[in-house]
Amino acid sequence: MNDTIQRRKNGERCNDLLQKILDAEEDPEDPLDDFVVFLHMGLFLQAGSETVSNTLSFCFIELMQNSLVYAKLVDELRDAFPSRDHMPDHETLRRIPYLNAVLNETMRMYLQAGQGIRRIIDKDVVLGGYLIPKETKIIASTSQAARDPTVWSEPEKFKSERFLEEDVPIDAFMPFSSGSRNCIGKK
User: Fold this and answer.
1) Among 101, 131, 148, 181, which residue's Cβ finds the most Cβ atoms within 10 Å?
2) Where along the chain is heme bound (predicted)?
3) Can you give the residue range of the structural domain that contains 130?
4) Domain-embedded: residue 187
5) Residue 184 domain flag
6) How many domains, in total, are found in the chain?
7) Tens digit of each residue's pLDDT, the chain (187 residues)
8) Does 183 show up as a binding residue in the annotation?
């Protein structure tokens, strides 16, 4: 019999992602309401499929249009994996700088979760000369921040080296959101 079904019949809790979200809903320090739980579950479904495939599609398009980037990436990958018998693991892939720079630049230019970061202001704030009162619901546009010419040099140009050479402003590059509720797919 399926372990999940057996646990439910025995009244045991399931130690899965949905259970963790439901537990967070009951956290008195930082509760989630039903609508936020609903949004998170939808995001997990989307993030696990469409965002990855779309990001990789845009990455391949950029690689085909930028032969120098393509050649440099191929060289780095051949150095990292000299044998075709070696299956890349997560730790190895994290330590390949140019690959990560190419992926980060792809996510900067083609942000898949571009609807922005939703938050509720916890105190009165003056932003751009306007008073935004406490409890106001806002959306910070991560896609606009990722193409802001005051932050990024040549923001409309694919330049993967920027993620190797420049200090990347954490508040202008948030493809996985930020804070305690950032995307679990970040790593």
Assistant:
1) 101
2) 183
3) 13-177
4) no
5) no
6) 1
7) 466 667 667 777 777 766 766 676 666 676 677 777 777 777 777 766 777 888 999 999 999 999 999 999 999 999 888 887 877 888 888 889 999 999 999 999 998 766 677 788 899 999 889 999 999 998 878 888 889 999 999 999 999 999 998 788 877 887 777 777 676 666 6
8) yes
Question: pLDDT tens digits for 67-106?
Answer: 999 999 999 999 888 887 877 888 888 889 999 999 999 9
Q: What is the DSSP-derived secondary structure letter of residue 128?
A: T
Structural domain contains residue 60: yes
The beta strand positions in the chain, using DSSP E, are: 117-120, 125-127, 130-132, 137-140
DSSP letter (8 states) at residue 29:
S
With helix as H, strand as E and coil as C, how does 159-179 read? CCCHHHHCCCCCCCCCCCCCH
Report the CATH number at residue 87: 1.10.630.10
CA atoms within 13 A on the CB side of 166: 17
Inside any domain, residue 183:
no
Q: What is the DSSP letter of 186?
A: -
